[in-house]
Amino acid sequence: MDHLVEKTIRKEKIFSGKVVQLYVEDVQLPNGKTSKREVIKHPGAVAVIPITKDGKLVLVRQYRKALERVLVEIPAGKLEKGEEPFASAQRELEEETGYRAQSMRHIVSFYTSPGFADELIHLYVAEGLEKLEDAASLDEDEFVDVLEVTLEEALKMLEKQEIYDAKTAYALQYLQLRRVTGEKHA
Amino acid sequence: MDHLVEKTIRKEKIFSGKVVQLYVEDVQLPNGKTSKREVIKHPGAVAVIPITKDGKLVLVRQYRKALERVLVEIPAGKLEKGEEPFASAQRELEEETGYRAQSMRHIVSFYTSPGFADELIHLYVAEGLEKLEDAASLDEDEFVDVLEVTLEEALKMLEKQEIYDAKTAYALQYLQLRRVTGEKHA
């Protein structure tokens, strides 16, 4: 597939922040012409589909500065430096919802915006949720409302664009598919 | 939901490129503390799930500079300035695959990375595909291989991480769900 590759001629680092880095790259296209690519580097992230013992989905409502609005999403967060995705998913679930999962498994990973960013998100399903006694594990600078909803309620939120992001839309489809193929829960 | 809002204190434009703009914002958190947010502004995008008359899925293989690798994805592209998403989806389908759709309908829209970017992607399903006679409509600076695969073949590509992005993973689940609920195609 070498006939598709864009060779880097020059790479300039424009910005290095807490979360993202931005590069502008001059590339040589397969036809020999040159072009510019704007590339965002991101540490990667995890997201969890948490299902309670009575089959409800746990969601978090939070403010998203990039959108200047509140969204309802499955719990998620950035990977910390050197952190394994599985451990990160456990941590984010606890910090954002106050739940610990008896079982958690990886279902899929995907790049969210391959056209301009390298963010890779690892998605898990968490079951057998136990409420933690100490709320101390909740992140004090994270402001979220925790919701427990049925799949039908979540699908209505998707319709009303309260749920409006790729990983949560994927999660709802995953639960719908699981239901129609006869698996239990949500 | 005002108790979740982060107020902007200061906003600095760091970069304005062909595709993205980057801002760093000082915000006041709901607890009165301040923090910084890195925000990427993006024009938005469209993606199409194109299904051939014999029920195959049309995919494109292309190089993604942000990932430094080739991915297989459903056809997609950025919104041009002032362009309606529906027209954009028709254009991208034609430019990338050489197919025109007899019917195309919107199925969902979602933000791809609400944690740091405002990219909103509008997803369509296209059916009744007709091959265009003139390849002239293909974008000369776009280098893609066009593939036609069954859903099973696409799911294997997802397993092998040749398909590795959110919108295409969503598309495959959409087709799986459609199949098990008795709808035809793919």
Pick out its properties.
3 helices; three-stranded antiparallel beta sheet; Nucleoside Triphosphate Pyrophosphohydrolase; alpha+beta; elongated; 42% strand; 20% helix; 186 residues; homodimer; 10 strands; 2 domains; four-stranded mixed beta sheet
Written overview of the protein:
Two copies of one chain form a homodimer. Chain A has 186 residues and is of the alpha+beta class. The first copy, chain A, has helices at residues 85-97, 151-159, 166-180; strands at residues 7-16, 21-28, 34-41, 45-50, 57-64, 69-73, 76-78, 99-111, 120-131, 144-149. In chain A, a hairpin with a 4-residue loop joins strand 1 and strand 2 (21-28). The longest helix of chain A is centred in the C-terminal third of the chain and has 15 residues, at 166-180. Chain A is elongated, with a radius of gyration of 19 Å. The relative contact order of chain A is 0.18. The mean pLDDT of chain A is 94. At the A-B interface, strand 2, strand 3, strand 5, strand 6 and strand 8 of A face strand 1, strand 2, strand 3, strand 5 and strand 6 of B. Chains A, B: Its cofactor is Mg(2+). Chains A, B: Homodimer. Chains A, B: Pfam families: NUDIX. Chains A, B: A motif (Nudix box) lies at residues 77-99.
